[in-house]
Amino acid sequence: xxxxxxxxxxxxxxxxxxxxxxxxxxxxxxxxxxxxxxxxxxxxxxxxxxxxxxxxxxxxxxxxxxxxxxxxxxxxxxxxxxxxxxxxxxxxxxxxxxxxxxxxxxxxxxxxxxxxxxxxxxxxxxxxxxxxxxxxxxxxxxxxxxxxxxxxxxxxxxxxxxxxxxxxxxxxx
Amino acid sequence: xxxxxxxxxxxxxxxxxxxxxxxxxxxxxxxxxxxxxxxxxxxxxxxxxxxxxxxxxxxxxxxxxxxxxxxxxxxxxxxxxxxxxxxxxxxxxxxxxxxxxxxxxxxxxxxxxxxxxxxxxxxxxxxxx
Lengths: 173, 129
Hints:
The structure holds two protein chains of two kinds.
Chain A: E1 2-9, H1 15-22, E2 31-33, E3 42-44, E4 48-53, E5 59-64, H2 72-79, E6 84-90, H3 94-106, E7 115-120, H4 128-140, E8 147-149, H5 155-172
Chain B: H1 5-16, E1 19-26, E2 31-36, H2 44-64, E3 72-76, E4 80-89, E5 92-101, H3 106-120
């Protein structure tokens, strides 16, 4: 069975990187030079795609979308038929965690859908303020979603997200 | 004296007829210049986002499937056509897009838009949009 996982979150939160870390194939990416200062040289404007073989029966399509809300046309395309979602949040950046609520609504994340939140850019340790704010948002939405601090560059760290999504589905079914 | 984008649009519309919109956007989707004709309704930000996404996907398809360099993207509908070409403007990677209704001639659109894209690489347009 082929399942579709979306990686969403603000600009620079590590969506392209985590897909590159997880994918068994060379990823398709649509990065272009950024014309404004976003703290990095390249930004995704189309779609990132990677492919992960979980076992003989299950493969995952890994889809990354642009972080800016103006690209909601790409979000709409990826949103259809999703099995699971990973929201990436930049540590200690209020814009990034404030957007979580909007993303939950837009992607219609509900209790029956495997979902994980990964806090990135936490090299100096995760700011508890970020975790606290995310938990408050989740409480408002009456959702109980695991929140991890991850390094998207590290395959083991990225794998934690996938293993959690699989475990969440098993827990639901 | 530098040209306005409106003058460029009108010059193009005189040749192609039924041009509804002409847009120059950065590769990462920030609109630089847009000219929308008459009653045609379109959000400039949305047009820029669409063109940057589609062009980036077209780039990926050209590179990874056809093993070649990207040149242009064309969308045809029952009412008209949207054509996108890459260009550079003021040392930035950009996309030039045109929307035409009626019965557009793809060959003409391609010719004039590629010519305009080439012109833009060395042009400095008037600040007036």
